[in-house]
Amino acid sequence: MENKKLHLVSLGCTKNLIDSEVMLGRLKEYDIIEDGSKADVIIVNTCGFIDAAKEESLQTVMNLHDERKNDSLLVMSGCLSERYKEELQKELKEVDIFTGVGDYDKIDELIALKQNRFSPKSYLIQNEDRIITGSTYHTYIKLSEGCNQQCSFCAIPQFKGKLQSRPLSAIVEEVTKLVAQGFYDFSFISQDSSSYLRDFEEKEGLNTLIDAIEAIEGVKSARILYLYPSTLTDNVLTKIINSKIFHNYFDMPIQHISDHMLKTMRRGAGKEIVVKQLEMMRHAPNSFVRTSIIAGHPGEREEDFEELATFLKTYHFDRVNIFAYSDEEGTKAKTMESKIPLMVMDQRIAKLNEIIETQTLQSLQEELGKEIEVVIQGESSEHEYFLAAKKLLWAEDIDGEILIYDNELDTPL
Predict the structure, then answer these.
(1) Is the overall model pTM greater than 0.85, yes or no?
(2) What CA–CA distance (Å, rounded) separates 396 from 15?
(3) Which pLDDT value is given to residue 413?
(4) Which of 125, 174, 258, 334 might form a disulfide with 327, Cβ 3.0–4.6 angstroms?
């Protein structure tokens, strides 16, 4: 008997990707296909973080519904489904099964029963078998779910709940199992990675994590993503810098640099602390510093913006993501006055992007003439004569692609 066919679309962040891989692991009896019109089951793991992500999620669901088979099942899971569960179940009759962020490990049961389910926020999926996608050497490891921060612009704690760290033993078990499967490069992620184990009364849980991962034979490369200024300590930074396994790869979304805006955004750490941390990162050997900025948050004065622009010019981040502020239901920022006009916001974003393009180009030019360790990832999307490679230090998918002539390799792939 021919296996049933599954088409899964994972939208949003890499934390979502892990959850999608858990669902694939629970549905191993299905053949995974790329053509949704031929699938027996279609799953869209949605993102509900900002307006653009919501629109993409809804459009993806509707597009897949339009082309699917008559007898197929369309499943909507993830953050958007969780955040707007009552409204979506009432309005989206095209979807057969709704589930949120707590039932990825029960997706096979929901499909078999054709049943909706939304588990309470107090969940944390443990060591489920995942089908790793996109790489044969690298994977993401989730440190925790939820977040205790109260940033003015962010709704994540509303639908993800409070911080819940995974026990260190569970993470060690998962990494050890993945090493046995041939994986050697790991990115550790969560909403606020520098708060790892704080719910277990351990202030510097990342130090414990680093020691445990370094003790696993076969782990060659690791990085920690999404550090948070108010919970990151100098001891943890020093631990990363001195590690022989963890790269000096620092991904810390600062969102702004003006003290006025950091307070308005309820970030919990002022400019002095943020700058001190960034300087420690920049002066670490072979460091790579990535951040994210929100432009146009309510209350952003012209002097706040100019302070931010000047800082971006002088600090020289390796990579920066710019996000336009958008109102999110249930957040403090939505109720704030002093909203920034769209035209002003667009002008500010354009100016920041110009600065960032210059900084990114400078970061890449600094690599010229160096001998660096890279991972060959296969044929490049640019041209069949090129191979795609990634500097081992860089994070997967987001920091760029190095093109290599295949005839320059000593050993053909």
Answers:
(1) yes
(2) 13
(3) 46
(4) 334
